[in-house]
Amino acid sequence: MAKPSFARISLLVFGFLLLFATYSWLFGPDSGFLYDTRVRKTLGSDPKLHVDHSCEKPHHPLDPLTVQEIEKVRTILWGHDSSFGSGSATIHSMALDEPEKTRVVQWKKGSRLPSRRAEVVAYWGGQTHEITVDLDSGGVVSDLVNPTSGYPILTLNDALAASQVPLKSVEFNRSIEARGVKFSDLACITPFAGWFGAEEEGRRVIRVQCYTLQDTSNYFMRPLEGLYVTVDLDKLEVIKVVDKGPIPIPKASGTEYQFDIQNKPVHMDKINPISMEQPDGPSFRVEDGHLVKWANWVFHVKADQRAGMIISQATVRDSETGEPRSVMYKGFPSELFVPYMDPEEAWYYKAYMDAGELGLGSTALSLVPLNDCPRNAYYIDGVFASPDGKSIVQPNMICLFERYAGDISWRHSEILIPNVDIRESRPKVTLVARMATSVGNYDYIFDWEFQTDGLIRVTVAASGMLMVKATPYDNVDDLGDKEDDAGPLISENVIGVVHDHFITFHLDMDIDGPTNNSLVKVHLEKQRVPTGESPRKSYLKVKKYVAKTEKDAQIKLSLYDPYEFHIVNPNRKSRLGNPAGYRIIPGGNAASLLDHDDPPQIRGAFTNNQIWVTRYNRSEQYAGGVLIYQGHGDDTLQVWSDRDRSIENKDIVLWYTLGFHHVPCQEDYPVMPTVAASFELKPANFFESNPVLGVAPFFDNDLPVCRPFASS
């Protein structure tokens, strides 16, 4: 048997799928990830722009750690414990330890910043340490071992090391040769193990699954089905090799998706390039790198290793007084849960928690100008820490742009007043903050869209590749009673395994202040009209109920028992006496149908309801818990909510889960068109009247005149 050479094996790894090619891009001499003293060329619309992060300083209490601060934290940690200097300690995450909310809210620009601290999650000696570093004093404030189950977010080093372990196994290498795959074409990924009991107890484990790159870059469509390896992450040893025997490897033809390589005919007329022009320049500005001001909105935006993008201190100007009013203190995707619906041995563990197991920011590569973001976009970098504590710049991770797609903000034409021509219409221009992450086979696009009428729309779109299963069958007529086992046949020898996507958002709504908010459940109740009182037989009546405790706010949506859900400040009243509020408007959604005692659902218990409201606790940020990798589900949103704390007229947090069931189809192959789900946060008696009533329309002389060519 030929001994595989590590030098010539293509190992494409992502933690749960971190590409090896990405690793070269991250740390190579020409990488886009640049350390503290180097200058980064933007990948935006103007490649001449430069951002030098080496001298940046924080200007706002919520600004992320700077390059200099990350390097200072590293120095402090190396002096704190010899495990860092020896290399036995690994940094799994490093971020700003945000000041207490009251201090942030009271802070004014020009004032001295609150004490800057870093929160570090590090792992050594089989224990997870949560370390707080005070940057002002230059010392470690606390070093605590986390008592909950689970392990910290994976690092790229973890995934790369684990992916090479199977090659030490004679059994594994024989299985590769038996399938006729060259080691030079081998592409291995590291799906997370989840938690199912004894096999995962007392050690960090990970699975390794392999594909072939022969004749395509889309290796996800060419799995080596039935073969996987369980690896001990700390000892870097093989625990188990499972080989269910060679199953036909799906063909490479028709799988390529790169524009310069594929030769796919397009049977449609060409769509000419399109761009929104702004003759007077953009209407928004970004101050000090993170504070965004646009129209009547002000908010803070930053990149985050775990959450991807965080929106903070969103305020909107009052339409009557011009006073800035608080809407949301902090909003971000708290967890992303993707369970696959195949109980077989090589698939049952595939139930991913992408934010807590790998990080939405860790896998967010540079956005593609003109395609991910329009020409008028402004780009923001991410600054993170590597496993050895060095600073990393993730260029062009977030983009901001104004959007106008011909939508209408409001309109009315009057036809009942004689001899009067009234046709009033206003364009809807919005501001979008966007980031995209490539969590292995799937790509997710996160949009926070701000409207001048006070509405915030949050959209999550999914694209990328399906996680597929190879099968001996190449036509549905051959499947017989196996047709519904794991999913439909989407190409020859390829099954698209059925799965779910659930994204749970942490929405710290602070309507006109943090301390006096309540959840009001507005119920539409059907009433029967007494006989003889009206030709009508039934109607709907609105009844309002204030949630008293957290269990009152564990909410499952139902089309046939409709509610609206308002977060209100009962101490801020309109001129008519209505409490100022915002309501959450769900879009298309799905519920998890897994049994509550199923191990993936125990860990993903935050999807047991679509809406939750909890008492604010700064330690309760992540719906699946701080340590979610192999966690047992003992520190989830469900656990916190079951404490049933009082939430009436308190500082409260709204949690919303959007989701969709995905039954794959042929159009999802080899790369799926984008599918999106969204929800809205909309003013409800927050303004005295329509806040965009006085907005001016567009006129011909406001814009360049562009006319289409005459048709031939």
Considering the chains and any ligands shown, give keywords for the structure.
globular, 9 helices, 34 strands, 712 residues, mainly beta, single chain, 10-stranded antiparallel β-sheet
What does this structure look like?
Keywords: Copper, Disulfide bond, Metal-binding, Oxidoreductase, TPQ. The chain has 712 residues and is mainly beta. It is 9% helix and 36% strand. The strands form 7 sheets. It has a 10-stranded antiparallel beta sheet with strand order 17-18-21-22-23-34-31-30-28-29. The termini are far apart. Residues 2-48 have low confidence and may be disordered.
Low-confidence stretches: 2-48
Give, in spatial order, the strands making up the sheet with the most strands. Answer: 17-18-21-22-23-34-31-30-28-29
What amount of the residues lies in strands? Answer: 35-45%
Radius of gyration (CA) equals: 27 Å
Whole-number mean pLDDT: 90
Distance between the termini: 68 Å
Number of helices: 9
Category by helix and strand content: mainly beta
